[in-house]
TrEMBL record:
Its main location: cytoplasm. The keyword 4Fe-4S applies. Pfam families: Radical_SAM. InterPro entries: Coproporphyrinogen-III_oxidase (IPR034505), Elp3/MiaA/NifB-like_rSAM (IPR006638), HemW-like (IPR004559), rSAM (IPR007197), rSAM_sf (IPR058240). Keywords: 4Fe-4S, Chaperone, Cytoplasm, Heme, Iron, Iron-sulfur, Metal-binding, S-adenosyl-L-methionine. NCBIfam families: hemN_rel (TIGR00539). Probably acts as a heme chaperone, transferring heme to an unknown acceptor. Binds one molecule of heme per monomer, possibly covalently. Binds 1 [4Fe-4S] cluster. The cluster is coordinated with 3 cysteines and an exchangeable S-adenosyl-L-methionine. Residues 1-228 form the Radical SAM core domain. This is Heme chaperone HemW. It comes from the Bacteria.
Length: 353
């Protein structure tokens, strides 16, 4: 298989954030070594099973959970196995939390080959961090980013969350000022969502939905010369994210790490102990051609990728042309593009309905 993406899931966290619905654990640290051994077994198996070619992995993204809760030495076998499969200029990203991204951890990950670091900052206000259930303080976030910069990381990103009851236009402006004072090249700004099974499920009042907040954030970021390349992302694009939106195949390695190869979506065990016992197991969902087209439309129109006109049926083409005539889509070189990502769902639904 030529040209693929790789996602590696680390399901351990120091604490569970109040909004988090990801597959993560705060009470099973004794399983760390067993988990990484199982993850390594799955990686070796999948590279062979899916016939991944040497020098064909374009990007690696280590997410979680919290990858910075795992010491670099436990990643070493993973990177040794990956080495012949990585392209020379592969983008290798790891997420990290400010409170666990020590100088030793950051240096160790850099020596393994990680060249992009994404910090879960979420806010530069301590009261908002407390509301969200974050384990760090503002000062720790600033120090972590500056520490990574001092160690030679040239590609640094942070996440921020907005649409909470504590957000005001003035505070959002302060958040962005503090963000842009740091040596970052990328910013993800996510609207708080209330997910089932999270502590916030029983506290819906913590969310303060406002389309104006999203517009303000976009306007303030672009005023600083940064471009929006996806509904929640700004700055120098993350190649791994772009690969998802381009609908490239990707391997998902780890407990609950979903992958997609061709028309098959692959689901390993989500329960940690089950995954450790059977890392090769995958539940398979076969995607119908029309489902894949719909996914390409939703992904393409929420990002700068756009959609290729050739994938659209005649009725979809008629609707896309209508949106173009109304100025809600642009068209060039056989592709449709969405000029306003905040309307991406409505535009996509109109095309496929």
């Amino acid at each position: 298989m030529q040209h693929t993406l790789l996602y590696i899931h680390i399901p351990f966290c120091d604490s569970k954030c109040h909004y988090c619905s990801f597959n993560s654990y705060v009470d099973k640290f004794e399983l760390k070594e067993a988990y990484m051994k199982a993850l390594h077994r799955q990686l070796r198996h999948d590279l062979e099973h899916y016939a991944v070619s040497p020098n064909s992995i374009e990007t690696v993204f280590i997410g979680g959970g919290t990858p910075s809760t795992m010491p670099p030495e436990l990643y070493e076998p993973i990177f040794e196995t990956l080495e012949p499969f990585l392209q020379a200029e592969a983008e290798i990203t790891s997420e990290a939390n400010p409170n666990s991204a020590s100088e030793m951890w950051l240096g160790g990950m850099k020596s393994l080959g990680v060249n992009r670091m994404s910090f879960g900052v979420q806010s530069f206000f301590d009261d908002k961090l407390k509301l969200l259930g974050r384990a760090h303080k503002t000062g720790e976030a600033v120090a972590a980013v500056e520490r990574a910069d001092a160690l030679g990381y040239t590609r640094l990103s942070i996440d921020l969350i907005y649409a909470t009851i504590l957000d005001t236009p003035e505070r959002i402006e302060t958040e962005l000022e503090r963000a842009f004072a740091l040596p970052i090249e990328h910013l993800s700004a996510y609207e708080l969502t209330i997910e089932e099974g999270t502590p916030f499920q029983h506290r819906p009042e913590v969310r303060k939905e406002s389309i104006e907040q999203a517009k303000t954030i976009r306007r303030q970021i672009e005023r600083r010369g940064w471009k929006q390349y996806e509904i929640s992302n700004f700055g120098t694009p993350c190649r791994h994210n772009l690969g998802y939106w381009e609908y490239k195949p990707y391997l998902g390695i780890g407990s609950g790490a979903v992958g997609r190869i061709g028309n098959e979506r692959l689901y390993p065990h989500r329960i940690l102990e089950h995954y450790i016992e059977a890392p090769f197991f995958k539940e398979t969902e076969t995607l119908a051609p029309d489902e894949m087209v719909e996914e390409k439309i939703f992904l393409g129109l929420r990002s700068v990728i756009g959609i290729d006109e050739s994938i659209l049926g005649e009725r979809m083409k008629e609707r896309a042309r209508l949106l173009r005539d109304e100025g809600k889509l642009t068209y060039r070189d056989g592709r449709y593009y969405n000029p306003d990502f905040l309307l991406s769902d409505e535009v996509s639904l109109f095309i496929i309905s």
